[in-house]
Amino acid sequence: MRLWRNIREPLLVGMLWAVLALCSVSLREDFGAVLLFWAPSGLAVAAFHHIPRRRWLLLGAILLPLQMAAIWWGGTAPTAALAYSCASLLQAIIAASIRIGVLGGRFEVPRNFLQVAGLFVAALAGGVAGALVAMPFRAEHTLADMAWWFLANVLAIITLTPVFLRLLPLFRLGFKRELVRVDWTSGALLIGAAGLALAILQGSELVLVPLLVTGVVFATVRQGKVAGALVVLAYAGVATVLSLGGESPAPLLDLPRAEASLVLQGWMLAMLATALPIAAMLLKRQELQRELVQHNQRMHESLMLFDLAEETAGIGRWRLDLVTGEQDWSAKMLELNGLPRSLAPDPGDLTRLLPDGGEKLFGQIAAKREEREAFTFNYTIKPPGAPERILRISVLNEFDDNGRRIAVFGVAMDVTEQIRREDALELARGRAVRLAAEAQKLANTDALTNLPNRRCTFGRLENMVEVAGKRGGMLTAIMFDVDHFKRVNDLFGHQTGDEVLVRVAELARRQARGGDLVGRVGGEEFVWLLPALADEAAAKLAERLRESVESGTESSALPAVTISIGIAHFRRGDTPESLLARADAALYDAKEGGRNRVMLAA
Questions:
Q1: Most confidently modeled range among 221-230, 290-299, 391-400
Q2: What is the arrangement of strands in the sheet containing 375-381, beginning at the earlier edge strand?
Q3: How far apart (Å, rounded) are the C-alpha atoms in residues 579 and 566?
């Protein structure tokens, strides 16, 4: 089966080549027709173009004997038949190789002028090679005979090779009905071309001959390069019919039969050469059209996706051309600004449509006319009969090469809910901060005296001791309490006792410096921490505090009280506990010594 698949196409091509060759010879020998084209050459080039290079040897091995048999059957000597067959193979291989190289592959089609011209050169090169090999074996060695051979093969390669390239794939597919389509337009074009050629070639007016060229150009413009080649082929078919029985293929030419044939071949080659640049331009136009269609398709898809994203995300877009004054508003952008969606894409003068006349929107855009980067701002709108909304718009200025602003592009979205959430979040955050600060204050403050409580005082003491120990600084701890405070509570009540404590705390706060700390660490017990102060100065402040409490409470409506004070100065190696323990011991000594006095720790 694999062998049959490999040889099926070459065998079918060889048999078709033989049939075409025998029919062509029969037309010439039996019916006296003039052959302007050698049709088998177009088939051979198409076969080598269509079949992969790795199978060219097999194709040549099958074609050669079939060609020889057909040519010999037509009355040619075996030696000449072999030469003609070799010339045909060489011609086909050269033309096909150049075609594939020019197009860049077997399945590529011409897309520009150079490729179309390359196909023309391929036909000429193959025709020259075949003629040079075959001519020594021709019965006639005249220039006219060589010209006929060359032109007949070149014209066949140019016109018939594209046709056979379309038909050869059907061999593999078995001529399925759905693959065989009738192009009635091309058929009508060919019928018209044949009628035109019949009228002109039989007539007597040479001035009508340019109409043949017009027909080729018209076919090329309407249907492409292949249609132009088919019209030339129709002309050749009419000329062949006119030549049946030994007549001239072009009665309007007052020339012998052979010369008239050469003139017609030259005309046809010139027609194809005339159609060449037209075909190239059409191919370029078709390529540009394909690219434009693809670009438009991609742009259409992008716009659809953009519109979908716009509607889904609630984003509107807007563009203002400052040169022409044209606007492009998306329906969503109009809706966001409280305008009917039906006004898209150009709502005209917006100063009478926008709720605020566009003052905020266009004012910001005017103020940023020199801005090169995108800028963003919020603006508030209040459409009639609708709640107030906040829009956020990002704007980008567009400049030309001279730095002149030529357009403005913007996208906007409704951020009303977002702004409200942000405001609510900010309010909640501020409240939380205040509550945290209050909680922190409550956690570190004595509720009665508003002095730092025991925990806060001891925490600050640890830091002060650490600093004094590392830097060799000075630190004094003063402990004091109210003398006979229990008696005050017993005689005057706890309410009065609390007022006395508040009064003592206030007097102590007044004596403290900016960096000092006065804290309540017990019922009637207080600590005064004095960093960076000489020992003598700390002792004087302690004495002044004692005097202040004694005189301060005597002059008030509260019961007169005094305080006892113990002082301890920081020593290297002290800990917070050891420092306070020495101050507490000094306080105990002051109590034992009669109270209302200041004692220095040993």
A1: 391-400
A2: 327-329, 315-321, 405-414, 389-399, 375-381
A3: 11
Residue 481 tokens read as: 């309490």
**Residue 362 to residues 115, 337, 567, Cα–Cα distance (Å):** 56, 13, 74
**CA–CA separation, 326 and 322 (whole Å):** 7
Query: For the whole model, what pTM was predicted?
Result: 0.51
C-alpha to C-alpha distance for 580 and 574, rounded to whole angstroms: 10
Q: What is the mean pLDDT of residues 572-590?
A: 91
Residues 6 or more apart in contact with residue 304 via CB below 8 angstroms: none
Indicate the domain borders of the chain: 1-174, 183-287, 314-419, 445-600
**pLDDT of 176 over the 60 cut:** no
Q: Per DSSP, which regions of 471-543 are E strands?
A: 475-482, 517-520, 525-531
User: Alpha-carbon distance 192 to 214, whole Å?
Assistant: 12
Query: Distance between CA 505 and CA 499 in Å, rounded?
Result: 10
Read off the tokens for 283.
């191919």
- Closest Cα to residue 580, out of 590, 593, 566, 596? 566
Q: Which CATH number describes the domain made up of 314-419? A: 3.30.450.20
- Name the architecture of domain 445-600: 2-Layer Sandwich (3.30)
List all residues 6 or more positions away from 598 whose beta carbon is below 8 Å from its beta carbon.
539, 542, 543, 546, 565, 566, 567, 590
CA distances from 568 to 23, 572, 593 (A): 135, 13, 17
Per DSSP, 594 falls in state T
Chain-centroid distance, C-alpha 49: 40
What string of H, E and C letters represents the secondary structure of 325-357? Answer: CCEEECHHHHHHCCCCHHHCCCCCCCCCCCCCC
Residues with catalytic roles: 524
Instruction: Name residue 99's amino acid.
Output: R
The first and second tokens of residue 136, run together, are 């020594």
Give yes or no for a contact between 185 and 223, defined as CB atoms under 8 angstroms apart.
yes
Q: Collapsing DSSP states into helix, strand and coil, what is residue 571? A: coil
